[in-house]
Design goal:
Length: 455
Amino acid sequence: MKTKIFLAFIAVILTALLSNFIFQWLIMKDFDSYVGSVKKDQFYWVLASVEGSYSDGKWDKDSLSESIHWAMMLGLNVKVLDNSGKEVISSHEVMGSLSESMKQRMAEHFHIHAHETDGKFTDYPLYIKDKRIGTFLSMPFQKQELKEKESIFKKRTRNFILVSFLIAGGGSLLIAFLLSRYLSKPIMNLKKAAEKISKGDFTPRTDINSHDEVGELSGTFNKMAESLQREEKLRKHLLSNIAHELRTPLTILKTHAEAIGDGIMDKGKGLENIRSEIDRLIKLVKGIEDITAAEASFFTKGQEAEINLKDFLSGIGNDMLPAFREKGLDITIVNSSGLTISTDVEKLERVIRNILSNSLKFTEKGGVSIEHGKDAKTFFIEIKDTGKGIPEKELPLIFNRFYRGESGTEGLGLGLAIVKELVDIMGGRIEVRSKVNKGTLFRLYFGIQAGTKIN
């Protein structure tokens, strides 16, 4: 991973440097083209000025001298010949007519007296109204130290490019190396943590140092590790509890069977005890099946559907009412207003039924009331019974699997554990308030952000 990131940075750096060289070459090319175009325009301006110095079949020496003077100022050594090839005027001739100060200034920039064989004239025909009037000869003045200056300029340019390449390239390589290590570090930490988890160690966590995709991945990994660690603890706890729950009835079954076989216990009574323990085992297996089915639903996204909450709660209440009436209890729907929501109906129904079953188990008189309502962001379902209540010290433990309280009441202690885990999966929360011998209140909250729509 680190090597790939580093190579990617190198590729980007090389592409940027190549683009820089191409851009520099194009700029210099355009600049040379611009300079050449300007010189060409200046040259044709001089050429036009020279042609304008000819009229009535003869040359105007004053005007021609001024044109040649401007050509010299532009760095051109020129001559003008007539049609017979005779020299009309030249730069040397015009130079002689200049003042001493002007001569000195121009001599500082050009080899004014350099022999003409040092360069080659280029000839251009002169026309007026399609009639040739002579020839214009031109070549650049030989500038002093021109070759030395050009050599120094090219050398400095090469050195500048080389030094800038070394600085930019070396710095970029260093930055690429450091960035590749920095960017790959969280990935490497994730890899090491994943390797430990694959070996059964669920304790590793990764640091979240950013809020980008890698940070989100680290957060997701930590949640996954926490979930795996929690599930591993629950699995061990479940196996331990199942073993404990099975040991007692199996021991009793074995003891009673041996007692009947030895003639110590009456056969009728012994079979009755065995039947009772078998019923207890059946309940235990049923409880294990319930928790297995519940856990399967934890990891399955149920289909959401719109329901009328009052009708939904009334339907569950009517289904369970016969069981309550059998104990002389009643179920009351307190809120009569309609509330339409969109939720995972299967999970919500399992939650409500488990709470009502728990209330039925611990309520001897009165009954259960069910209320629902909403505010700006959430809706709630409140189930209140008039049962035995829960001691304050036991309230934090009632959602643990197989917890049945210090009183050792009947049941497997799985119902409320399933309720809590389902509520968490649905993105809600549950609150419990209880007083001994006065009853217990369960309130469920589900928010709009959890996928609920309130109309």
